[in-house]
Structure formats: C-alpha cells, structure tokens
Design a protein that fits this description.
- It contains five helices and 19 strands.
- By secondary structure, the chain is α+β, with helices and mostly antiparallel strands.
- It folds into two domains: about 140 residues, Diaminopimelate Epimerase, Chain A, domain 1 (Roll), CATH 3.10.310; about 130 residues, Roll (Diaminopimelate Epimerase, Chain A, domain 1).
- An eight-stranded mixed β-barrel has the order 1-2-3-4-6-7-8-19. A two-stranded antiparallel ribbon has the order 13-14.
- Strand 13 and strand 14 form a beta hairpin.
Length: about 300
C-alpha cells in the first residue's frame, strides 16, 4: 500500500531562486530505518537530505544524510528544516525552538522581519594550526597563507586575496588524505568588489570540497562558515561578519558570535518543490534512531 510522507526541497542560504544549496526535508511519522533514509538520500541526490521526527515529549529530532553517508552536522539542511517546519505550519515567525541532533541541541528561529529567512546556532571554531602542505599547494597551483585542522574533520586553507578562488578548477579528484573529508578554501574580500549580503558587502569568501563524503563541491556550507567565521571575527575585530560562497550556485550568510564556541548563522531560503515521498516498506527502527541522536 502506498504511504506518502510530506517532503520539500528548499534552496538554503539563497537570496533568489535557483541559487544556494538545495536540501530535501522529509517529515516522518515515526523513526525510519537508517538504510531507507540513506537510500532515499541517494535517490534525491541533494548534498544533504534532512529527516525530521517529533518525539513523544514534543521535541523535534533531526538527522542528515548525503547521497553516500550520514553526517553529524549540516548547516544548510538545518536552515532548510527550519523553513520546512514553518511551511508545514509547525513554526511561527519569531518562534524559537531546539532541534535534537547528533551534534547536540541546535537552536533555530524564524526571522520575524524577513519572510523566508531564519537563524540557527552551530558549533564554531575549533581550528588548530597545521604545517603548510606543499603537496596541496602544488595541486591547487596556489600559495597557501595558512592551514588548519578542525574538530569537524575539515581542513581549512587560507589563500591570498588576489587568488582566483571563483575560477579555480574543482580539485576534488586530486585531494588526498584528510583533505578528502572536507576542504575549505577561503580568502579575504575587498569591500569595493565584494558581493552584498543583507545590505552590506561580504568580508570573506570560500569554497568547500568533500569527495570523501560523496560531495564533489557543496554550493553553500553552513558548517564551514560556522567553523571559519570566528577566525574572521577575531582577525577583523568585529562580533559579526558576512561570508560568501563562490560556487556556481552562490550564496552567503551573516555570521555572529552567539556564545563560547557558538556561531549564529542567518540566511534566506527558497522553496523549490513541495510534494510527498512514497515511504511504503520503509519500516521502523525506533531503537536505532534514538541511539543515533541521543544528546
């Protein structure tokens, strides 16, 4: 028998349609088997598919899957999940809540002043300096000014402001070792030439590659901006910065200090499609869900 579940596709951190980072969001009636969620994420082929389920205590639980694996944190799919809850009438403008996840409780809130916008708080910082990797510099054909590891498993490289980051050929196929699990390439922007975001020019831009997670290039990556924004805030001496992602589906976000090791990201989203997923035969694995997201 056909069993249909509400689902949407939202382009997150996008100021206009057909930009930003697409995330499917599926509203579950009960915890589903991880294998089914992974299979559906593979079929939808978005960089992440988010699954929401409301627990008996009223709290929402959230999981994220790339086309090939489950990930512990995803910023743009969290923004998409927040906007999806609003679309389904489960969240009102200005209302705040916490989403339970494998990375802890994530605070989210609809922006009451901007329709289609929301804010979320993610873990930030945690970058540890590493020696400059000569092999990576040779692969990119660029000079690296800094290189860091992180608790997320991402590596971060700082490029010269004059480097052509936007025009850089996708290096995903050549990445080796830990760089394959997530590589952030970032650089400062000249305010006279920077893209505008929420009324002011962006301060920095980045691109993100994660072939080890099944993502050749992520269009706009909330977790990457939450990771590097504290470094830019400290460097610029400001409590907030604007970050841009110079991918083909460009987009950006306002990043603000939200507490020790926390960053608030504010961005917009665009609803691309609204429909239902055939979940017949998906099964139920309540114990597996609960153990995966226990806080």
């Amino acid at each position: 028998m056909t069993h249909l579940l509400p689902a949407v596709l939202i382009e997150a951190f996008a100021a206009a349609p057909l930009q930003g980072n697409g995330a499917a969001v599926v509203l579950l009636e009960q915890p589903a088997e991880a294998g089914w969620m992974q299979g559906l994420a593979g079929s939808l082929r978005q960089s992440e598919t988010a699954f929401l389920h409301r627990r008996s205590d009223g709290q929402w639980q959230l999981r994220w899957f790339t086309p090939t694996c489950e990930v512990p944190l995803c910023g743009h799919a969290t923004l998409a999940a927040t906007l999806a809850l609003a679309h389904w009438g489960q969240l009102q403008p200005g209302e705040a809540l916490q989403l339970a996840s494998r990375s802890g409780a994530l605070a989210v809130q609809l922006d009451p002043s901007q329709p289609g916008a929301a804010a979320l708080v993610l873990p930030g910082g945690g970058m540890s300096p590493l020696p400059l990797p000569e092999e990576l510099a040779e692969q990119l054909g660029l000079t690296l000014l800094g290189y860091w590891g992180s608790e997320l498993g991402y590596r971060v490289a700082l490029l010269e402001p004059t480097a052509d980051l936007e025009g850089l050929a996708n290096p995903a196929a050549q990445l080796q070792g830990q760089d394959r699990q997530g590589l952030v390439l970032m650089q400062a922007l000249d305010s006279r030439e920077a893209p505008p975001l929420l009324g002011q020019p962006c301060d920095y831009q980045l691109r993100f590659f994660a072939p080890g997670l099944g993502i050749e290039e992520d269009p706009v990556t909330g977790s990457a901006h939450a990771l590097v924004a504290p470094w830019w805030m400290e460097r610029l001496g400001r409590p907030q910065v604007r970050g841009w992602q110079a991918s083909a589906r460009r987009g950006g976000m306002l990043c603000e200090h939200a507490g020790p090791d926390l960053v608030r990201l504010t961005g917009s989203g665009q609803l691309l499609w609204d429909g239902r997923i055939n979940a017949a035969g998906s099964g139920c694995d309540r114990s597996g869900w609960d153990s995966a997201v226990r806080l």
